[in-house]
Design a protein that fits this description.
With 603 residues, the chain is of the alpha/beta class. It contains 18 helices and 26 strands. An eight-stranded antiparallel sheet has the order 3-2-4-1-10-9-11-14, with helices on one face. A six-stranded antiparallel sheet has the order 5-6-7-8-12-13. Strand 12 and strand 13 form a beta hairpin. Helix 13 packs parallel to helix 18 and helix 15 runs parallel beside helix 18. It starts with a strand and ends in an 18-residue tail after the last helix. The chain binds fructose -6-phosphate.
């Protein structure tokens, strides 16, 4: 959570810093701040609210300077306020720092700093950092040594950027939170994530935990905490900056929903050859030693994992999904024949990373299924499969869910061939269906009636989503998307489970979205009838061929017929649109829903 950035150049930095902060707002948006060195000291401006509020404060451009750091916050220690907004300074205002993560021992550090006369102005854990550095500068250390010595005292997870008045450099480090260097022509950059500076440079150096970097206008130099040199290559990222812009859409979420035909084509491109999969780092035989698969993830990624579990189990593999935060706390048994797949768009979710580390430590083989090249998950795991969905900015995950499921189909096909040695006839049919999935998503987007359905059926007392098998995963995902951006009550259930309790909630004021995939249609039909008996309107989300469901339901959102393993991906696109249009009608902050952030780097 939180986004940090820095620009280190010869000319003014404010405009670039504001762009970077806007690009990082998906990581947090309850306060924002910037500090620049302007030759006459360090000018700090910070406000509660979004980056647009900060922009208003800075509109006269009097606060510019060539070297600056910035922050957009998702609160952990202390509520959103001007005082708790970053950057934070020491007592004399000479040292200024921004931070993403949690300093676990901050209370002890703060107490001892206070005992030595330091005065604090915020509730944050971050504020100890400039005070610690300030003390060391006062003792005669140079800024780089003071910075390394101060961070050596910190426990927890962090990415930090710091500057000292009159010193033309930014000092930064990471341990457990992401941080990348952008190598530009006019200036160099630091940020929590690449889209922050993609408009200025596509040359990126991914830092590792424990790295300390000194960035100047001309250069950057990496060491470890003791000052020994560390070498990290600069890589060119292939993302187009336009991918990370909103264009003519009102919201990133709508843009990203509409990008799904393209992002799915990218996910699949070059990975299917005839009746087999050709996954770059996973040639035939890669998984012959695997006898058990565990999938870990959070939120939408957990739902994609559930979808994957269902596919793998159906294909004869021993597969289970775990909510990553639970897995880390109560790890399931693993051995060297266990493959643990971390499903994570950002590759930075603390709970998922913790689960992967725990599995790895206990001897399992780990695979990161992620959208972000160079992310911590990608570097923590034994293997990486990139979902190649392109940057996702809207806090609500949309296109990455589809690409995660498509990637799990691909890796599942490799697994099933390697483990059972027996690709069924169905495998070929499914791969053919996967190849046509982008076109079918396009058809859904072109013909969807979700806007009018969401207007007609708005749940006064709640909104329910039901499905069986892989459609259960999509029911949970449909409900998550709905509650996350409308703030209305929404729940997803396994359709057969409704009668074991949740049916008590069902009334004429609770629309129920029933997702049909073509498997066991008569069972879903009887669930629908149970619901209608309680007067709730049922909206079927299914192929037209699902007449059991479409003829029974009160309204119908059609998806094209395809292989039943993949129909639920199409249904999910309809549910993304339902959530979007309902939230738009309610004028919600769709791209930045309250209390949430895109990348959750705290446990
Ligand atoms: C919901 C959403 C979250 C994320 C979750 C995991 O729309 O986006 O539930 O799916 O925080 O994030 P990643 O996939 O980055 O690990």
């Amino acid at each position: 959570m939180c986004g940090i950035t820095a620009r280190i150049g010869e000319d003014d930095s404010l405009a670039d810093l504001l762009v970077s902060l806007e690009n990082l707002e998906y990581r947090g948006y309850d306060s924002a701040g910037i500090a620049v060195q302007n030759g006459a000291g360090i000018d700090v401006n910070k406000v509660e609210g979004e980056v647009s509020e900060l922009q208003k404060t800075l509109s006269d451009h009097e606060h510019d300077g060539p070297i600056g750091i910035g922050h957009t916050r998702w609160s952990t220690h202390g509520p959103p306020s001007d005082e708790n907004a970053h950057p934070h300074t020491g007592c004399q205002g000479r040292v200024v720092a921004v931070h993403n993560g949690i300093i676990e021992n901050y209370a002890t550090l703060r107490e001892s700093l206070q005992a030595r006369g330091h005065e604090f102005t915020s509730d944050t854990d971050t504020e100890v950092i400039p005070h610690l550095v300030e003390e060391r500068l006062a003792a005669g250390m140079d800024p780089e040594i003071a910075f390394r010595d101060a961070i050596d005292e910190l426990e927890g997870s962090y990415a930090i950027a710091m500057m000292v008045d009159g010193d033309p450099a930014v000092y930064a480090t990471r341990d457990g939170s992401p941080l990348v260097v952008g190598v530009g022509r006019e200036a160099n950059y630091l940020a929590s994530d690449v889209p922050a500076f993609l408009e200025f440079t596509d040359r990126v150096v991914y830092l590792e935990d424990g790295d300390v970097v000194v960035v100047t206008p001309e250069d950057h130099r990496i060491t470890d905490i003791d000052g020994s040199p560390v070498s990290r290559p600069a890589e060119t990222v292939e993302w187009d900056p336009e991918d990370a812009e909103k264009g003519s859409y009102d919201h990133y979420m709508l843009k990203e929903i509409n990008e799904q035909p393209v992002s799915l084509r990218q996910t699949i491109r070059g990975r299917i050859e005839g009746e087999d999969v050709t996954l770059e780092d996973f040639p035939p035989g890669t998984f012959t030693d695997i006898s058990r698969v565990q999938l870990v993830g959070c939120g939408t990624s957990y739902h994609a994992g559930m979808y994957g579990e269902w596919l793998l189990s159906k294909w004869g593999l021993d597969a289970n999904t775990y909510i990553a935060s639970e897995y880390a706390a109560y790890p399931a048994p693993v051995d060297e024949e266990t493959l643990v797949i971390g499903v994570t768009q950002s590759g930075e979710t603390a709970d998922t990373l913790e689960a992967l580390r725990s599995a790895r430590k206990r001897g399992a083989r780990t695979l990161a299924l992620t959208n972000v090249i160079g992310s911590t998950a990608a570097r923590t795991c034994d293997d990486v499969l990139l979902i190649r969905a392109g940057p996702e900015i809207g806090v609500a995950a949309t296109k990455t869910f589809s690409s995660q499921v498509a990637s799990l189909v691909l890796v599942g096909e490799r697994l099933v061939r390697d483990v059972t040695g027996d690709p069924t006839e169905e495998c070929a049919e499914r791969l053919a269906a996967l190849e046509s999935l982008p076109d079918l998503v396009e058809e859904v987007l072109d013909t969807s009636q979700a806007a009018s359905i969401s207007q007609r059926w708005s749940g006064e007392a709640g909104n329910f989503f039901i499905g069986r098998g892989n459609a259960h995963a999509v029911a949970l995902e449909g409900a998550l998307k709905f509650k996350e951006i409308t703030y209305e009550h929404a729940e997803g259930f396994a359709a057969g489970e409704l009668k074991h309790g949740p049916l008590a909630l069902v009334t004429a004021e609770t629309p129920v979205f029933a997702i049909g995939t073509g498997r066991h249609p008569e069972r879903l039909e009887s669930n629908v009838r149970e619901i209608q008996t309680r007067l709730a309107p049922v909206i079927a989300v299914a192929p037209r061929t699902e007449t059991n469901l479409t003829d029974t339901a009160d309204a119908f959102l059609a998806v094209p017929a395809t292989h039943p393993d993949l129909v639920a991906v199409l249904a999910n696109v309809q549910l993304q649109l339902i959530a979007y249009h309902a939230a738009d009608e309610m004028e919600r902050a769709i791209d930045k829903p309250r209390n949430l952030a895109k990348s959750v780097t705290v446990e």
